[in-house]
Amino acid sequence: MLRPWKITLGRIDPARSTPLYLQIAHAIVHEIERGRLAAETFLPSSRQLADILGVNRKTVVLAYEDLIAQGWLESRGTRGTVVAREMAGLRRPEQPPVPQAGPVRPDYFVHQPPARPLAMPSGGGIKINEGSPDGRLFSTDVLARALRSAVLRGTRDNGLLYRDPRGSPRLREEIATMLRGERGLNVEAENICITRGSQNAIFLAAQALLSPGDTVIVEELTYEPAVAAFTALGARVVGVPLTEHGIDTRAVEAACRAHRVRAIFLTPHHQFPTTIALRPEGRLRLLELARQFRFAVIEDDYDHEFHFETQPLLPMASYALDRVIYVGSLSKLLLPALRVGYVAAPASVIDAIAHGVSLTDGMGNSLIEEAVVELISDGELRRHARRATQIYAERRLAFADLLRSELGGHVDFRVPDGGLAFWLRFPDGHLLDRIEANAAMHKLTLAPSASFIARPGAERGLRIGFGSFTPPEAQAAVEALARAGGLGR
Question: What whole-number distance in Å separates Cα of residue 143 and Cα of residue 52?
């Protein structure tokens, strides 16, 4: 049996966040892997090692017990603790010392994401979003009651286990009923899959459709996270021009003749980011092209609930569900943090999407989905929608007045018929450059104009959300925007 005169371990630092006993355990494992502590080698007693390292004896006892439980060490009773005999012959290639501080870097290959920033909340200052709702408008008491009801129902019905990756059957039925009655879709529960918000729905739909090398058509100004999802799946993204009435269908046909198009991604209700609605004749022409060239239409109807003027057009999926994968969300109507989206499509497509859910998420969030069912069945969702729409309608007009008073004739915009954002166009591109260059100086955060562009030469602009601002907050935001452009007082 080997008994070392003295054991030398890597630096043990009480200032590190890792507990001392784990630092000692890791250091001993490292010495075993390097071959410096051979099988059946006796380690110092816990008291001796504590004296060597200058730590409490109980800390060393914890480290030894942990390594014995894992099989690295063996206890020989009163004779002491040794390196386990199973470690005989274990000798890994010499490696650089384990870093004791600083970030840990993987020692294996990882696909690096594209150079796009994560959408993280801003710190201080003013955050101008791209059309988010005001989560403060929804009653937390109402939400708490719904969550409590969902927990009690789940406990009573044994519904808190793993379940269908397509989502809560009750919620799927409620959404199908809503889509039939309010949006004209010929759907049943089997045509619905619940997702973690609309972005998750877009990715799952694309995953079911696309293979590496396939082509996806998008509008030249579009929703960048969707483009990133398509690209991550290996698709080629082709941007086509917009007209004053929506996507240029002639350009779509030309792209279909030039490429093997698998899908087209659209936001026809309130085009993202410009807010214009695609005219009926354009919708019908796109569906003709979809049938001719056999591609799917991914229709993202992200804010159908908020319309302030005329009756909104029916979704494209209402008259062509065989060609359209319809993506919607309750997150904007309720709370973004709830992450409740959905896909409506033929049942076979829903099965494929549910398979994607089973691989990445398993089953979604039963409690949240059942709480949403409670909000729908109790009428709370409808009541909140009416109240919120009235508030947003007032904020929309007030925000337009602010833009006129603070930015005057320096920007062009139209008051949107629906949705929660304005699209600002800049006759003088230098003004837009100044705003983007000086935004941080004025503690202002906003989506850069380049993030909307999917085709070189597309018009630059800013999408400015108004729904989440109270009147004083809106005033501060627009004034900061003007100051960033050198126009403020």
Answer: 57
Q: Which of 42-46, 225-229, 432-436 has the lowest mean pLDDT?
A: 42-46
* Per-residue pLDDT at 117: 59
CA neighbor of 252 nearest in space, from 211, 205, 285? 285
Q: Is residue 262 predicted with pLDDT exceeding 60?
A: yes
C-alpha dihedral (415, 416, 419, 425), degrees to nearest 10: -80
pTM of the entire structure?
Answer: 0.81
Q: Determine the structural domain holding residue 64 and report its residue range.
A: 20-87
Alpha helices, DSSP H, located in 101-196: 140-156, 169-183
* Cβ partners under 8 Å of residue 3, min gap 6: 41, 42
Asked whether the beta carbons of 166 and 193 are under 8 A apart, the reply is yes
* Bridge partner residues of 462 (DSSP): 424
Are 387 and 478 in a shared domain?
yes
Q: What is the pLDDT of residue 316?
A: 93
Residue 100, pLDDT score: 53
Which residue in this structure is represented by tokens 């710190």? 123
β-bridge partners, 359: none
Which uninterrupted H or E stretch holds 81? strand 81-83
- Residues 307-334, mean pLDDT to the nearest whole number: 87
Asked if residues 406 and 487 have their Cβ atoms less than 8 Å apart, the reply is yes
Does a structural domain hold residue 114?
Answer: no
